[in-house]
User: Fold this.
Amino acid sequence: MKKLIATFAVAVSVGAQAAAPADGIVAGRDYHSYADPSAFVVKHLDLNLQASFEEKSLSGVADLTVKRVGADARKLTLDTRDLVIRQVWWVKAADDLKTLRFTLGVRDPMLGAPLTLDLPRELDAPEFVVRVSYQTRPEASGLQWVAAAQTADRTHPFLFTQSQAIHARSWIPLQDSPQVRMTYTATIRVPRGMRAVMSAESYTNPKELLPDGVYKFRMPQAIPSYLVALAVAKLEFRATGPRTGVYAESSVVEAAAKEFSETEQMIEVSEKLFGPYRWGRYDLLILPPSFPFGGMENPRLSFITPTVIAGDRSLTALIAHELAHSWSGNLVTNATWRDLWLNEGFTVFLQGRIVRAVYGERREQMEEVLDLSTLRSDLADLPPSDLVLAMDLRGRDPDEVFTQVPYIKGALFISWLESRFGAAGIDAFLKSYFDHFQFQSITTEQFRAYLETNLLPKKPGAVTAAEIDEWITRPGLPAFAVLPVSDAFDKVDEQRKAWLGGTAAASLPGKDWTTHEWVHFLDGFPGTVAATKLAELDAVWNLTQTGNSEVAFSWLRVAIANDYAPAYPRLESYLTAIGRRKLIKPLYEDLMKTPAGAERARAIYSRARPNYHPIATATLDAILKRGN
Ligand code: BES
Ligand code: ZN
Assistant:
């Protein structure tokens, strides 16, 4: 933290005066962690855990190698949430353990409880190891213990972690802040017949099922805690290239390997643009449908929702996105959750570059227009204070402030820079930015200072300080933003208009449409469409029964808006089968708009809730106004 503030001071002296954040926010200060990196920083984590599906618990020890930063610091504070802490030691030598006194503070509903270790005077080494013996609770917010019945194969249960943003602390006691980077090693014991995978290299061969159920891992690059990840399941592996492959349950693995066979090509494209892929392998893990996100960029092993396996590779932008985080996010990391747009906005921009190179500009444009429309609905619904790139998250749970603003507004900012400095100019700048800040965690202010010294002088006068300021500090989209357009969608708009005007549904070119055109077609429906029209469309194109989760989502929104009853059984089966927050939250919100819909929502939710992830139920409980 000291270092960040020092760098920030430099940023102010070279940048515009307006670079200081508003309202007393301290740039680089993590308001979502109890840890004090100006006293101590954790450099390495060694985990030794056993997974019990009966007890829904991970149990064992975490050894933390700690570096002293503050000369006189005597208290080491770690983040925890709902952990059972058994004992804490100072590991003076392998055979010399000294018990440490500790206190577990009051549990804050958002932050969890600080675990404070009292360090004896005698412990004055610049670097030392502490060992925490602990176990997780069944309700740990970062773990989902999926029952066998909710998996693809239905034979074995499935455990997976989701540490971003502040859930690592619910399964590991550590400094849970993105500005603390550490390497890690792990030994994970799992039931026989199951396999453990992590966001790390495995030096017990990951592609083999190990008869003793003991798996060992090593992550030699320093990463933030939110990228520590583990899954335990009955998994198969299929290679898709020399350094890429897919882990999935056996009934899914072939389809997944086919759907994501272009991953190596995506890495090659990215390396050309942004510099070497620095993480060795890049594998995908296909999770059960209750995974609350589309994807999670855990290093070396992105976690992926099965809802993007559409059969026609039309939703692989998600893979481009998670892969792009290998540069924006995992290599150069947001210092605090306020700076999330540095991770997500840049990644959406990189994702567009990858999609363009692999699938062409037409598809890139369609995806950008779809993204823009999701941003527009957030811009219309959210208060102005939530429409700035570097949001004030003090006192707020990062999970509940998950919007399109850091993603799409962030990407549009970079696109706008591209419009002023040229594609080659912006790509060269990004590459140098990744090299310059590699394996560091940085603030919005540090990025801005870097931009001002390394891009703006390339073309003096191309942008003004006031324009940059508007992007970074003001709500909404600047009037001078450069917005995507899509000819392909203009055609779909005409076709929708013709159909609404009375032409037959059978004359729509739907068999040539990919997910993109279908979603755009459906999302553009006016407030009401006659039930007979919807029935005709459904009869010809079988929308209620589509296996494409994104098309089904858009269709179900139309169905709710028009009270189209034939789709209701599918609505219920959809909401009980899928737990991806982006695909279910809007459906519940739509239902809640009418009394009859609210009743339906509550009935469905009471059946679906037991199978949702804790991150999803936290959001949905608030929407449906219910607790446990
Ligand atoms: N890192 C995010 C997911 C995330 C962000 C989890 C913040 C918790 C807090 C991941 O890379 C992501 O952005 N996923 C998107 C993918 C999409 C934009 C292609 C998702 O899950 O929808
Ligand atoms: Zn992302």
